[in-house]
Design a protein that fits this description.
By secondary structure, the chain is of the alpha/beta class. The protein is 41% helix and 25% strand. Helix 5 (128-143) packs antiparallel against helix 6. The model has no long low-confidence stretch (mean pLDDT 92).
Length: 291
Amino acid sequence: MMHDFVLVTDSTADLPAEMISQYHIVILPLEFTIGEATYHDYPDQREFPLSQFYALLRNGSQSKTAQVSYHVFEQTFEEILKNGQDILYIGFSSALSGTYNTACIVAEDLKSKYPQQKILVVDSLCASLGQGLFVYQIARQREKGASLEEAYQWAMDNRLHVCHWFTVDDLSHLKRGGRISSAAALVGTALQIKPVLHVDNEGRLIPMEKIRGRAHSLSALVDKMAQTAIDPKNQVIFISHGDCLDDAQGVAQLVKERFDVAEVVINYIGPVIGTHSGPGTVALFFMGNNR
């Protein structure tokens, strides 16, 4: 199916493979290294099953991640431009990765080579399935007939309405990433403290509350949705999880009961985000008045 422009994003959007296919979205895979080998983060898990990835994390293995390279951006963008199509690229939050900045450099470098085509670049200020929700909404705009410029403007006008709320089960991964101190991780683990975090207006990961107990932390996500969600009954709500499907489904059930939501999309947190959030993470994403 041909569109006026091609929608491109990163694998950090954690979108289900079937949705990527349905909406004709091009995914740029980031990389992760676990053990001695490096893999690409493909949404269909062709190189590394996510259940295996999280099992390794639970057993003490550590993973490292790498952003999309200049060469991969250049190769992907050129294939599209050579086909005579424009590009709308939606990047992983610039506060969390250098991927967006690389895209900007490549887009600028290709201008003179393809003067008839356009590459518009958006810093989503989003992460995980929050980025996925944002890209899904833009894809819906394109399906309704939005032009490249109209879709770009919609993205810029609405990116701060994508709300991210999540909680983690294992504090060690936040400690390793510098999100909390070693002392806070030690005390929090002993007291069964489960932090509730969100992504702020600058695209940064920010701890917001300390909740005691897993069940309370999961219900707190739904409480946050109640405070800012716009017409939740008529939204498609996205939930991602770090290999804890039962907990994600529990949050989905709470959302359906509380807001009469008809559709909830649930998917894994991919290995790039999962490296930093760890097993047992549950995240809730929706459109709200503000973050």
